[in-house]
């Protein structure tokens, strides 16, 4: 009997479903399609083509645009649920997801549909856009930025951290209109900005606006003083903090700065940046911006349309909070930079006019301790991105290739006054000692930098062997642990005739950065290839820069200190040659020590501490007669490897050499 009852119930249910389907006449499907069209239209914030009831689509579109204008360029993802029919009416749930400043705001509203003939129309109501949104209310987004994370140096020393600043400007509420122009011009002159432009900015601002002129470090002895600022009618200072390095110039080309996001940065940020946000500008600040900046907190308010700041201040309860997400702090960026050595390097270059650089690293672990670009580099990261002919410091690569062909420091080579290759005559640098001409040892040829002796080896040292030796010394290969944009050198694997001859003395198509030169010196000191590293884990969400032999991804060219020969085409780095061995490095250390004991860098013999090894380099460039030259020197001193470069510097020994001497002596 029970079995027949179950069958009867199932049969009754089936008959009821059939009856409902028969009565529906497609209404459910039509309502479902109307709900889908509504959700798609609201997702695009465009209801102009949606069938509506009780209001024109154009009017509804104006209301919609006004309601969401305060959310910026964000658009929601909206999906419709299954309509619930009640005769010729239906309710449908709309599920919203907004992505605001990296946070998701999710909620559900209900829209009403009504059937007119064969068509379902939407009854337009603001509450379908946001929970209980009134007809006179709009949505407004407010962001709260977390404090930007620090950039740390060796031992987690704070290189860039929040430091006190003063925002200096005119408070228009404190100066009469007839005195505004004169006051703005006086303040602009005092702080050193364009007076006409600032006066125009002040005139265009609101009646009670604070018109910022400049941001100054709030430090003892600053100029202008508080008294000088206060003497200007309407001028005030507002205390604040900004992410700053110890000084305005400290590692600026490497670290970058922090400033207000540009329109281009906002557009490219996919909604994570808004007008007025601060973001990284150049260097590590830009490269690791998302890690350092963290995530803004966001609040969405529903408030009366047209509510002014003054009205809100007087009646804060006039708006209500619909969504709130707390800010997420950024993650500090840890680097290997040594603050004392970085400052020493910058102080050493302070008086150098042309573009220049000093790079110091620790051979034992590859840590970059200093990467300073001098004032003549005009803000360009010459230290890590510069691309220059290395000149005679490249003879270190030659020497390794020769050693691999059986040579030793005592091998005899021929040093002539000149050598002609396919019609091009190569000579030694001016002042080359006559006593070191003729049949000399490889040690003497390296110590005195005999060009002709090394060029003469082109018949036994192929261009491919030069490339292999360079990569064995850490040059022209990837340094994936560096964590920053850099150029690590380029050595062509094939070259013939005069080009191959030029390669033997670090010219032709051979290019180094000061960082690459320091890596080469460090590899000699370590007795194995050095893998440079600058940014330490954790690197968070920042994107590490390319460090291939072909050049850094997205690196901008220098306006005044870029490569003086054509830059190589970006390409995969060369396959590294056989790793440098301890025995090979021993020969190279012998050669570099000879440069100090009997060669061009005798002035380094008095540097206290461990014995210094060195190699000078002078590279001609350009078409002037006589040609201009790059001045190079590399040095090793215990667990320290240093490269010094001056773009238009004469001879390496006389220009870059004293800079290295000063740096090594003070670095002990």
TrEMBL record:
Keyword field: Membrane, Signal
Region Disordered: start-end pairs: 542-583
Domain Penicillin-binding protein transpeptidase: 357-661
Biased segments, Low complexity type: 542-574
Domain Penicillin-binding protein dimerisation residues, every copy: 144-302
Residues making up the signal peptide according to the UniProt record: 1-21
Keyword presence, Mitochondrion: no
Gene3D superfamilies: DD-peptidase/beta-lactamase superfamily, Penicillin-binding protein 2a (Domain 2)
Subcellular localization, as worded in the UniProt entry: Membrane
A UniProt-annotated Pfam family: PBP_dimer
Top-level taxonomic group: Bacteria
Family: Belongs to the transpeptidase family.
Protein name, entry field: Penicillin-binding transpeptidase domain-containing protein
Organism the protein comes from: Sinomonas halotolerans
Lineage of source species: Bacteria, Bacillati, Actinomycetota, Actinomycetes, Micrococcales
